[in-house]
Amino acid sequence: MREKEIDKLKEYKYGFTTDIENIRSPKGLYKETIEFISKIKNEPDWMLKWRMKAFERLQKIKEPNWQKPKYPKINYQDLYYYSAPKTAKNKPKSLDEVDPKLIETYKKLGIPLDEQKKLNGIAVDAVFDSVSVATTFKDKLNEVGVIFCSISEAIQKHPELVKKYLGSVIPINDHYFATLNSAVFTDGSFVYIPEGVKCPMELSTYFRINASQTGQFERTLIIADKNSYVSYLEGCTAPMRDENQLHAANVELVALEGAEIKYSTVQNWYPGDENGNGGIYNFVTKRGLCKEKNSKISWTQVETGSAITWKYPSCILQGDNSVGEFYSIAITNNHQKADTGTKMIHLGKNTKSKIISKGISAGFADNTYRGLVDIFPKANNAQNFTQCDSLLMGNRCGAHTIPYIKNKNSDSNIAHEATTSKISEEQLFYCQQRGLNSEEAVSLIVNGFCKEVLQQLPMEFAVEAQKLVGISLEGSVG
Amino acid sequence: MDNLETNLNEIKDILNLSKEQIEDRKLSLLDFSKNGFPSKKDEDWKFIDLNRIISSKIPKIKFFNNLISKKIENKEVFKDISKNLLENNYIISKNGLITDVVLDHEDKNKFSITKIPANIKEDQYSSLSSLNKAFYLDYLKIVIKENYRFKKPVLVINYSSPEIQNTVLNQRFDLVMEKNSCMSILDLNWNFSENNFYNINNNFQLNENSILKNYKIDLNNNSNIFYSKTKIELYKNSISENFIISSGSDCYKNEIECDLKEKFTSAFVNGIINLDVSKLHEIRSKINHLSENTKSYQLIKCALKDKSKAVYQGKIFVDSIAQKTDGYQLSKAILLNEGTEFNGKPELEIYADDVKCSHGSSSGNLDENKIFYLMTRGLSKNEAKKILLDGFFLEVIEKITDTKVKDLIKELMKIR
Questions:
Q1: What angle, rounded to 10 degrees, do the helices at B19-35 and B127-135 form?
Q2: How confident is the model at residue B333 (pLDDT cuts 50, 70, 90)?
Q3: For chain B: N or C, fewer Cβ within 10 A?
Q4: Burial class of residue A152 in the structure, from the number of CB atoms within 10 Å of its CB (0-12 exposed, 13-18 middle, 19+ buried)
Q5: A421 closest CB neighbour out of B333, B349, B356
Q6: ipTM for this prediction
Q7: Which chain A residue has its CA at the smallest distance from B305's CA?
Q8: What would the pLDDT profile of B205-260 be if each residue is shown by its tens digit?
Q9: A398, A408, A410 ranked by CB distance to B365: nearest
């Protein structure tokens, strides 16, 4: 029995649960749930009204159903929309006050919350179920004027910024899951980089779902003021449970004149077991707005986890000369499904976008790239380059490419290319001849296949991601 | 659309339908009236909202027009058609009724012609095919016998006269090619009518080792809306070559679906969309690789002027047993001035691992450097553009394997 458990842990090493007392909202999605969330977070009146507006709209709209991976209907009344460690009710002022069990959890995950150690020099905001438990390196960031805190704190302390930008990229009246998030979001990160500041360290958020029957609905808002720069990392894990849990986050990025935001994600939610039981439904809305001229937003994502990944990190290139980039690796194994890609909306003149997507499919998995490049009539001299490559392992999995290309400007240039192939026998043979076993060989070849995207990740993440690529495909060959 | 039932009654009188046939048609009519014309909500019609186009352009649409049986002389039809074209076999359809089937160059015992349809089976439901089944006026089925190769191409002239207006015209054409047979079809749109909706349904079956070359030409300007669906089934070693020139009509959606059902089959879909004014054309192809060692190749080129809009939706589907598939798809669009729009959706859906599938798509303007180069050699700007566009199209035309047809098409397109 115990051996079995250990074996299971090997497969998904973040699969443990933390035994900790929780405060939960009443079950189900009602007006009262939202009032409860708003009240427990001590939110001002305008915030509650904002949430209510979203909730009212939610009653009128339907879940979208055009996606490739189908899933059983989610019973929204059977979920808890708020779950927090009891000790977090009064937010700890320093790390000493944080429940040691929580610190232990993050240690297990390899996330340094301990500021003293300053191991990696990355500022971390750790989100446990519905609340942010700790944010590190606050003082150092304060010196240069960078605001990095949980969004609940920002609503209290910087309401003018939140009011101005919250919902400016993903409005309340967006699609179903985004609206659901607007109504019930519980926590998340808030970043503001003042004019002319280059953020001295990488900012990072670590999300973890612990409680069962809970959905995680976090909201991240990043604002880069004129000529500033920030690199932001996001990581996520969840315990192994045989139920499907919903994660519907909203991420909004706003880049003002000359600003650059680099947003990297390593997503490793629990993917479900080899028979396709359990796992996270990762239905995330990520959207960046290059609001003013010369701004740049770059998305990098490594998607290895989740039972179903359904997300399209997008760039709205509104300012002239703005640049949007999207680098993605999506790996699906066993019964995982992914339908991911990006949207590049070219509104301004001389806007440029680049899309590199690598999809790897093994076992019974289905991997879909779905993307949109839309060049509006006024976007003179807009440029886009898209490349989507898929790799298939075995003939029980699928790889699909569905790009939408809309060109309404005669001055612009769009190029798109896509290929699908498999790992060739010769490559495998060559590697094995040099002494690698078949799994190492696959890992090496896949890493080479993904190299263009892995290069875009910050150092600390790149190492982790490379390992992850290898682990995710274990057992898929031979 | 209140006149659906009455129109069906009128059709019944003209065509002398049996009771059974009427019942069949009534059922199809019921299917159609459930959903009506497809609209933007339908993923396949995302870029062309047929329902909206028809309701704005032909608000008082009729499903039957008693003028169709008016007699038209062949002389009238042949006027302005080049002599070179008429030297071939020909089939004439006048306002949807097939009047002449002249296959004089061929051996009479080697093919058969049927004009009464057997049960029409359709594996997929679509509202437009139901409409076709309910209202089709005339039907033609040609079976080409084993080992027979057609000596000359068959020119199909789809003629319509100016008095036909605001009407839906439905046509059906079936073709069965037995073992080792070979044939070329030149499908010519020859329309002088206005504001009609043509709903054309073709079914081709290619048996072992047969070759079908299907050329569709839409060059003369007219204000009609077309929807043409061609379904091709390919069996062992057969080859289907499709070529489309889409240019004359106001709105044209060409849909080609190829099922590569057995080993070593190949399908080619090449097309040119050349538009001006505010025309709207679409080519939609779906290639289903259902067996091992099959091959498909697609090349679509579009040039757009004024306020025109072109759409290309291409899909390559590879079944999990279809190993060693080779699929390729390339679409290129040139937007010559502001106000034009190109939409593309090149799609891959793949379930087998040992395959080679790729697609490419690009859109943009003509290269200024090339224009400049030609102008330094003494050409005017317009001449330079014309040469570059001709070259752009020639790459597709050169793919035509029937050299006689290639020359005819060059002549029709005025490309030297």
A1: 150
A2: very high
A3: C
A4: buried
A5: B356
A6: 0.85
A7: A410
A8: 999 999 999 999 998 888 899 999 999 999 999 999 999 999 989 999 999 999 99
A9: A410
